[in-house]
Write a structure and sequence with these properties.
alpha+beta; six-stranded mixed β-sheet; 4 helices; 27% strand; disordered N terminus
Length: 124
């Protein structure tokens, strides 16, 4: 419960302090990452909108990302593979949301029973 509260407070701080977002991300949690020079596109080359992204894995090979996403889809059927043009990597996107509460709830669920290594990418 304390961990959930901590993550919630970090997200609220991120939304409140704007420029201090970088410092908060670096000092508060090893599971929250801010996007820096990322440019995500979907499979049809459509740019991804800004959001809190729950990431289930990062791959250099699209084939491996697609294969691992099949496993993740058993629990999260809307998960998909997205591509980061800035670093030529494929990411499994489990959920994207502008709602902090929804993101935290999903991340907690993932870590407790299915994907303990999932993390949140603050993509704004």
């Amino acid at each position: 419960m304390k961990k959930l509260l901590f993550i919630f407070l970090v997200f609220c701080s991120l939304l409140s302090f704007g420029q201090d977002r970088d410092a908060l991300l670096k000092s508060k949690s090893r599971h929250l990452f801010q996007s820096e020079n990322y440019f995500f596109v979907e499979q049809n080359n459509t740019p991804l909108d800004s959001a809190f992204l729950i990431i289930g894995g990062v791959y250099s090979n699209q084939k491996y990302a697609q294969h691992d996403n099949k496993r993740i889809r058993l629990m999260f059927p809307d998960s998909k593979v997205i591509y980061n043009k800035a670093n030529n990597r494929y990411y499994i996107l489990i959920q994207e949301s502008k709602d902090v509460d929804e993101t935290i709830k999903t991340l907690k669920s993932l870590r407790s029973m299915y994907e303990p290594l999932a993390w949140v990418l603050v993509y704004f």
